[in-house]
Amino acid sequence: GESVGLHLPTLSVQEGDNSIINCAYSNSASDYFIWYKQESGKGPQFIIDIRSNMDKRQGQRVTVLLNKTVKHLSLQIAATQPGDSAVYFCAENRKAGTASKLTFGTGTRLQVTL
Amino acid sequence: DTAVSQTPKYLVTQMGNDKSIKCEQNLGHDTMYWYKQDSKKFLKIMFSYNNKELIINETVPNRFSPKSPDKAHLNLHINSLELGDSAVYFCASSLAGGTYEQYFGPGTRLTVT
After folding, report:
1. Cα A99 to Cα A93, A102, B5, B52, distances in angstroms
2. Out of B55, B104, B107, whose CB is closest to A98?
3. pLDDT per 10-residue tile (average), chain A, 114 residues
């Protein structure tokens, strides 16, 4: 079966440092990956996505790297801020008819210390 | 404007009761979803509808019945509630086609006592 997992359940980072959150996936047929941020008491919020024909994608302070050889995905957050504290999920997307079926990883809690 | 909204935000009820959670999206999306997030934060898809048609139906007890009156609404009805149904339920929506990001609602925390 497929699985999407994270290596570190909790990551503590000092404010201003860069954060790296990792994710492993097992379904080599997956062609679309998404990172979500979930703050306490809120729903998951889209951060950035990447398609399997890309190795890297950058957004504002965030970069996603995809290594299809080892089936690994990472999210890099530059200059981490207190507002970045949240649980981060990677999700593997596969088409299911006209819907997208997301399989979420277990999540990594990012704690930003002052 | 709220993109994906759910009501109620909190729902506390006793075992055996029947309850409904409502979801509405104003993004013009054709596809809507229900997810369950357990106490360990694990998110798992339950159902997906596209333009009122059921597309995804994961292994969910038949006590759970989604209903889509139109493509902007997807409600979740739960019969004979059990303790294990306690969780946070999220509604989401996306464009149709299978490779678009999903937008999530704020969640409904269901507590069954």
Report:
1. 10, 9, 20, 12
2. B55
3. 55 96 88 94 95 95 95 96 96 82 91 93
